[in-house]
Amino acid sequence: MWNKIRWYLQKFMMGRNGRDELQTAALWLAVIFMLLSPPITRIIKIPLMDILSSLALLYSIFRFCSKEVYKRREENQKFIQELEFFKLRLSVRKTHKIYRCKGCGRKIRVPRGKGKIEITCPLCGRKFIRRT
User: Fold this and answer.
1) What is the DSSP letter of 110?
2) Pair 127, 118: CB distance under 8 Å
3) Treating both helix axes as pointing N-terminal to C-terminal, what angle do 21-44 and 69-92 enclose, rounded to 10 degrees?
4) Distance from C-alpha of 54 to C-alpha of 46, rounded to nearest angstrom
5) Cα 20 from Cα 77, distance rounded (Å)
6) Mean pLDDT in consecutive groups of 10 residues from the start of the chain, 132 residues
7) What is the DSSP string of 1-68?
8) Is the CB of residue 69 less than 8 Å from the CB of residue 95?
């Protein structure tokens, strides 16, 4: 009996996306919203966390069962890149400050503790003065 159920599940999952990092993150987000739901509902009187947890859970199931594997891989790659940038930013926040150039939008990393300095964008050459 269990072999038959296992075979049906394997057949169902053929050609589908399955588990990836973004699906796992959405599932964890749903769990966090479910855990936060009772205290928030007492304060706000609107089941906002219940709605958010349901949406996150539905998105997680959608990603898991999707047959558009190529699109899901692209979304997952973009998520991983953003997550890596966030981790990098957290790791250098005590030693460097990150500014955005107003001309081209490039992010420029400057060491902290240098006072007021003139920063030159390496891409467009625009200069601006900031405190580090």
Assistant:
1) E
2) yes
3) 70
4) 14
5) 10
6) 87 84 93 85 77 92 90 93 86 85 86 90 89 86
7) -HHHHHHHHHHHHTTS----HHHHHHHHHHHHHHHHHHHHHHHH-S-HHHHHHHHHHHHHHHHHH-S-
8) no
